[in-house]
Amino acid sequence: MLKYIFFMVCLIPLGFMKKMWWVVQNSLFLICLFMIMNNCVGLTPWNLSYYFWFDVLSYSLVLLSVWIIILMIMASESILDTYFYSGGFILLVLLLLLLLCLSFMSSNLFMFYLFFEASLIPTLFLILGWGYQPERVQAGIYLLFYTLFASLPLLVGIFFLEITKGGLMLWNMYMDFNMGDMFINYLWYFSMVIAFLVKMPMFLVHLWLPKAHVEAPVSGSMILAGVLLKLGGYGLLRVYNYLELVAIKLNLLWFGVSIIGIWAVSLVCLRQVDVKSLIAYSSVAHMGLVLMGIMTMGVWGFSGALTLMIAHGLCSSGLFCLANMSYERLGSRSLLINKGMLSFIPSLTLWWFLLSIANMAAPPTLNLLGEIGLLNSVIGWSSMSMLGVGLLSFFSAGYTLYLYSYTQHGKYYSGMYSCWGGNIREYYLLFLHWFPLNLLILFAAPTMLWF
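Structure for NADH-ubiquinone oxidoreductase chain 4, as requested:
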């Protein structure tokens, strides 16, 4: 795996040369192909070095990161056409990819924290440098301060763990770790968990996400929805071995907040008039379900959380691409203006339909398998949650149909009646979101059993 990291580093100078933009993208396709062909990840993790390792969880999210970065470059052709700091854009994108891969491969908890926080910097510059509106500065400040304030207790908790336990290696964790004093146990638990809850994000600490999505360029929205939200779930899956004894007593709190938050966010989705804001709030709802699955602390919950994280990364990224395509043609993200697209761009309506049904977890998409695993674990953990998760599925279908019907049906008011089908690059981009989403369900069931 380290050879791919060095290859990515060597691609950075090519981004500053004209006519080398697509060389970088095709090289990343080659890396992705080699990673798929050389996949021999099983039950036993690989020790790449003293601070890096590789297992099923790392492999899945590293491959997702590389794939989303490739699609980011493909979706950002307007930056290449205008030559608006295209070299700097490639530099930030590849730097972000390196930091994400190193985060997912870190076997030391402090190294993971270091790369986890460093991935915030390229994302912030993507929003500030290539955002559409002047409000992007405020969105960047929200993103920065929400993450930094929540991450400082995590750093203190890691140092405390180093002092009391004498090591931070993820393969050297004890399931019965307990400091004795219950107050210190709870304090340490909150310090280790709150940063990941903000990053997911959990309801009540989610306000930075819609602002960042609305003001970010299409590449920023894709990487936020596709990979950066998964850092929180990945961190929880890694550190929960430390926290098992305290988590058993406190998981009901996060469980209740998540299920009430999913209802509230789903109702907020039905009141949105901004397409990107609606898709961003739907991400909060889906990641709330992932959090509920992790809090059950069972095999079905963990494996279903991983499956839904990968499925949501592909599905939500594709929806943001579609929202950007409508924005480029109409100059607005408002649902009051984005009407009648069925008669204006009928060829894109099929892709809206395919990605919308994936967002509501219809078969045969990977979202269905992830939600089945999560609903199984949640109802098995507490039968009282059956009504809650039933309403969750209903609301998910409700706001997705609201998004699809408002954008595709209705009277088109802009005075333009010519139909335009787009270009091949856009259809290729949407196909590369949708095809893995339906293909991976054939391979995800064995992976859930391995996990």
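The beta strands are 46-47, 53-54.
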